Amino acid sequence: MLSCTCCIVPQDVLNRFANDKKLAPELRKAAAESARLSAALRSLRVQAGALTAVSQGMGAHIAELAASPKVTVYDCKGTQTLPGTPVPSPKTSKDSTAQTSFAETTGVAAFYKKVFARNSIDNAGMTMMSSVHYGKHYNNAMWNGLQMVYGDGDGKLFLDFTKGHDVIGHELTHGVTQHSLQLGYSGDAGGLNESLSDCFGSMFKQWEAGQDAHTADWLIGADIMGPVAKSKGYSCLRNMANPADKSALAAQPTQYGQLTPGMDPHYSSGPPNLAFCTACVTLGGKSWEKIGQVWYAALTTSGANPTMSMPQFAARTRQVASQLFSGQAVVLAAVDKGWKLVGL
Ligand SMILES: [Zn+2]
């Protein structure tokens, strides 16, 4: 129920590469191995989700006023052992992957603090822990329920996963969701879970770059696409502004009515992604200033709702928009336009 299968690259994309006879054997092997590992790590995440639920039930939020979160980085050195060896001073490390992971995790913490007044993943100052250089040529990044894990990629299909700042924001947001709405990972809730990670991952990238909704590219994973993936015509994993984009590795449905039972959440996140992007672009300005605030409030003030449906979430954002921005009807109108476009 509370499992959080939160790899950035969907299983079927890796399987597709593993079975692509036009690819070099070593790339097919790296893709197949990444698919196998991602699946094996899933059981770990189920356990972490259950643990979170227990600790929240016991009122573990007494540390609400803890200081800014500590950011730690570990080096797996190509092994699959977590968390790996601590990197003593990641901020000044000569290993650019360790350094980027530290800088961007610190950036995500600052984003949540400055924009949403949230203290770390759990809003109680939880240490933000990352492991880099996980496995050999591992083509994925994930939140495993307790920490971040980054593969180096094979360098051809995917690059070092810490290069994607939206990827880092996406994965850490899975932690935020785990500690707020506690969405499951199937059905509507699963699609919402994935979509919230894309929304906040994209907003983080826009916030870092100081972009408004019109200049943002709304692509997820554009910076981790390797030369071979690009030569095949792929520019990103997902396109929030046009989920059905054929140049996205995982092109998605755009309409709520197109979702089918058992669909991978990386696909069912298409309609809510488009709704969010449309609301932001319709309103204009910086995505995190108004529409982002509405989505954040819907995520964090609705209690735990592991099986929340998309219509329920849409209704909640409409309600929050009219409350938070009661004197600005344009905000609710933009939110409404986004959901209506996807059939909600
Ligand atoms: Zn995810």
TrEMBL record:
Cofactor(s), by name: Zn(2+)
Domain Peptidase M4 span(s) in chain numbering: 99-178
Annotated compartments: Secreted
One Pfam short name: Peptidase_M4
Ranges where the Peptidase M4 C-terminal domain occurs: 182-343
Keyword Secreted: yes
Top EC group: hydrolase
UniProt cross-references to InterPro entries, sorted A to Z: Metalloprotease_M4, Peptidase_M4, Peptidase_M4/M1_CTD_sf, Peptidase_M4_C_domain, Peptidase_M4_domain
Domain of life: Bacteria
Database matches in SUPFAM superfamilies: Metalloproteases ('zincins'), catalytic domain
Its EC number(s): 3.4.24.-
Keywords: Hydrolase, Metal-binding, Metalloprotease, Protease, Secreted, Zinc
Family: Belongs to the peptidase M4 family.
Function: Extracellular zinc metalloprotease.
Protein name in UniProt: Neutral metalloproteinase
